[in-house]
Design a protein that fits this description.
alpha/beta, Cytidine Deaminase, domain 2, Dihydrofolate Reductase, subunit A, 5-stranded mixed sheet, 16 strands, 25% helix, diaminohydroxyphosphoribosylaminopyrimidine deaminase activity, RibDG_C, metal-binding
Length: 438
């Protein structure tokens, strides 16, 4: 049976399936959060979303709810039903077994084990299949899964809150409230549906953020916290370290300070300077250069751009073992490494200055979506690497004034290749959302 023709009611019921799919966004592990509704004679007789943790899938749950009413009914699914035997039976076979007469699919699954096979399986069984209904709308809640499948990295959202005078904070003050409570509540909701949140070490030390979800009832949905910390300077007394056993923390350290990083296993007496000079930045290789085989090529990285390194914070802070200052020798480094791991922090030795290397490493840990939330340098790093998929730019009427930290992005200089997706008002604040056009 060939491609089924879309019917007038298809968009209405697919919209219901898409709304369902958003219920568990960011809570289904490496599986996508899929919505499914079963419709018979114009009425929904079964509905479900992928269960927390990723199993069971949406289709068998919706079919079970519909029971005998599924025979001859239409199933609306936001993502192509799986056709392979994994830890659960194939969803395509479940749809066939229940006698569904028609299946309407929004997005084709890019997973090589599924892509097109689920559709073929259904059609071979005599079921009419219609695809592409509300595809653009359905892709947004599936963005993390689709990006990890097609680009081997998480979907990256950059969130910035900018004052009326173009600042994102004030030097030496720590956290500065730029947006109001309504906008901050919206950011908490974004954190709750994101796998991981990332800041630079400068922000981690200056602000001492917790980076968890604080909305009552959603605390358990806090993302993995990631800090770009080349020299393991994160203080042991920081909120991040103190809560690492409750909510995971990954510190991304330079490979040059790894216990395995020294030649032939010999530990150097003095650690190398790991903050690149401007000269080193200027002569750095493009991410996909054939002269730099140590960097894996990714599908969309860089467009020839060279990521700007983030310099570690300048200035000495007290208490080397407790953090805040870069260790100066191997013994000090090993002590810091052991103390952080004992506190529950995972240390990932992967060049923090090259997100095209870091992001695939995070994908292998099951991270499908990443929120970049802290630091002008960190934001600039991901923007210049061409690895931001979505920009959420909040603008507030607050004026920072003298000593302000300039935003790396203004409403007037959104990078080319991004489409404006909408403007939203939260109290006195304005949110403009942009998404990279494929």
């Amino acid at each position: 049976m060939g491609e089924g023709i879309a019917r007038p009611e298809d968009e209405r019921f697919m919209a219901a399936a898409i709304r369902l799919s958003r219920w568990h966004t960011g809570q289904t592990s490496t599986n996508p959060s899929v919505g499914c509704v079963i419709v018979r004679d114009g009425e929904i007789v079964g509905r479900a979303v992928t269960a927390l943790g990723g199993r069971p899938h949406a289709e068998p749950q919706a079919l079970a709810e519909a029971g005998e009413l599924a025979r001859g009914a239409t199933a609306y699914v936001t993502l192509e039903p799986c056709s392979h035997h994994g830890k659960t039976p194939p969803c395509a076979e479940a749809l066939i077994a229940y006698g569904v007469g028609r299946v309407v699919i929004s997005v084709t699954d890019p997973d090589v084990r599924v892509s097109g096979r689920g559709i073929s399986t259904l059609r071979d069984a005599g079921i009419e299949v219609t695809t592409g209904v509300l595809e653009e709308e359905a892709r947004q809640p599936l963005a993390g899964y689709l990006t990890r499948q097609t680009k081997n990295r998480p979907y990256v959202t950059l969130k910035l809150a900018v004052s009326a005078d173009g600042m994102i904070g004030r030097e030496g003050v720590g956290q500065v409230a730029i947006t109001g409570p309504e906008a901050r509540a919206q950011v908490q909701a974004l954190r709750a549906e994101t796998d991981a949140i990332l800041v630079g070490i400068g922000t981690a030390i200056a602000d001492d953020p917790l980076l968890t979800v604080r909305t009552p009832g959603l605390e358990a949905q806090s993302p993995v916290r990631i800090v770009l910390d080349p020299a393991l300077a994160l203080p042991l007394t920081s909120k991040l370290v103190e809560t690492a056993k409750e909510v995971p923390v990954i510190v991304v350290a330079s490979e040059e300070v790894s216990p395995l990083g020294s030649e032939e296993g010999a530990a150097p007496s003095v650690l190398p300077d790991i903050s690149p000079t401007m000269g080193e930045i200027g002569k750095a290789l493009a991410p996909n250069s054939q002269d730099n085989p140590s960097l894996p090529a990714t599908a969309d990285v860089g467009r020839g751009a060279t990521p700007q390194p983030i310099s570690p914070p300048v200035g000495e802070m007290s208490g080397r073992t407790e953090g805040g200052a870069a260790p100066t020798d191997r013994t000090d480094m090993d002590t810091r490494h052991a103390a952080l791991e004992a506190a529950g922090v995972e240390i990932l030795y992967c060049n923090p200055y090259h997100p095209e290397v870091l992001l695939p490493a995070l994908a292998t840990r099951g991270i499908s979506s990443l929120l970049v939330e802290g630091g002008a340098k960190t934001a600039k790093l991901f923007l210049e690497a061409g690895l931001v998929d979505r920009i959420q730019l909040y603008q507030a009427p607050v004026v920072i004034g003298d000593g302000g930290i300039e935003s790396p992005l203004q409403p007037t200089d959104i990078p080319s290749g991004f489409a404006h997706r909408g403007t939203y008002i939260f109290g006195a604040d304005r949110l403009d959302e942009y998404e990279r056009e494929n």
